[in-house]
Every structure is written in structure tokens, then in C-alpha cells.
Design a protein that fits this description.
heterodimer; A: 6-stranded mixed beta sheet; 4-stranded antiparallel beta sheet; globular; B: mainly beta; 11 strands
Chain lengths: ~110, ~120
Amino acid sequence: AQSVTQPDIHITVSEGASLELRCNYSYGATPYLFWYVQSPGQGLQLLLKYFSGDTLVQGIKGFEAEFKRSQSSFNLRKPSVHWSDAAEYFCAVGPTSGTYKYIFGTGTRLKVLA
Amino acid sequence: DAGVTQSPTHLIKTRGQQVTLRCSPKSGHDTVSWYQQALGQGPQFIFQYYEEEERQRGNFPDRFSGHQFPNYSSELNVNALLLGDSALYLCASSPGRGRYSYNEQFFGPGTRLTVL
């Protein structure tokens, strides 16, 4: 069965520091992968997505993610974090053959120190 | 162009009651999915509606039911509410073309349900 693991529940970084949020997935074939961000009291906003092709994906707000098939990973990165990036981040696997549902990880809460 | 809208924003119910949550999809979208997000968890898929029919269902009891209207809007109904049903309920819409929807799901702001 498909699954998504986000090993880090909380991460704290200083403003201006680099960021990497980890995501590992379990699926037999190449999945459709997404990163979403959720601010308090808000819905989910898509940061970026990977369907195929170039394994380094650029997203909004200066985020990027790299798909590594050998490690079953899709880690999210940002070179310099801004205080407004404090939020919860979710990795998700998208619909594949035989299913329409997205499967989300449990999320990583990012705290940014001034 | 309005995005996905949900109503109400917040709702407080007591155990045993029934609740109806509403969702209007983004313009041009015909597929609606519902997710339950408990505190500290990622969203869990409840079901998806396409062409007014439930296309797939997650691991939720029959107390959770839904409906999609001809204008593609949708309702989520939960009967016999339990304390554990307290959560943020998210609606997501997407274009449903093709057998499998590989397109991005656009999420609404959610309805916060509290069961006392």
C-alpha cells in the first residue's frame, strides 16, 4: 500500500538559514508527488508537484524539491528561510492507477527564529 | 475567479447530532474530494465525487455520506457524531477529465467541526 513518511514533526531554523524537509514514500512505481503548505487556520496551498521529467522541481515562494527514486524521497528545500515561511508542510502522493485519493504525510511544523 | 469555498467556517455540535458541511468547487472543476484533518495529523481521504456519484471512498464508516449536485457543489454529512469526529474538514476540487485525475487538487479553507 502507498504511504508517505515525514520523519520530522518539528523543525526550527533561524531566518536566513537554509531549510530541508524530508519526505519518503512507499510505492511500487513512480508516484505523483506534491508538497503543500498550511498556515494556521488556512487550507492547503500547493508549493510544487512532480509528475515526471526533471527530478529537480521548482515551486512557488522560492521552494524546490528533488525526486530521488533510489531513496524513495522527495525532499523540500529552500536556500534562505523567511519568517513568513513558518507553517506546516505536508508531502503527498497523488492518484495512481486504480485510485483517486491523495495520501498525505503527517506533516512537519516549521518554526522560524528571528 | 473564486477558489474553493466551504461553509460554515466553524461549527459546534454535541455527540449524537448530525452535521452537513458544504463545498463549492473552483470554477471549471467537476470533481470534489473531502478530507478529514485531525489535530496534528495530515488530511485523510474520506471520499471523492464525480458526475454526482461517489467515485472512491476512504476508510470511513457509513456515518459519513455525501452528495454532489448538478452544479458540482457538494455536501458532506456526518450522522451520530462522536467526539473523535472533531477535526478540520477540507474540500478539494479538481478537473475530473480522464479516468484518473492527475491534476492538482485545490483546497478550500476548511470547516472546523468541534463535537462536545
